[in-house]
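Re: beginner question about structure tokens

> Can someone show what the tokenized structure looks like for a real chain? I only ever see the sequence side.

Sure, here's an example I had lying around. Input first:
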Amino acid sequence: MLLALNFDWLTNLLAILFVVACLYDARYDEYGTLTLAAAAMGLIVMAIEVLLRPAFEMSL
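And the corresponding structure tokens:
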């Protein structure tokens, strides 16, 4: 239950993924689609964390 409410590990994982995607895109991809996808996933996870964490905490 504690792991489900703790989004810090997922945010850190997405930050590492974003850095790897930036390095890959800088070398191989001309359009930066991987970087945009990693950034979008990071924003979605942060939004979920901000919006859903208070609901989980109130339900406990």
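Each token stands for a local structural state, so reading them left to right follows the chain. The chain has one domain: 2-59.
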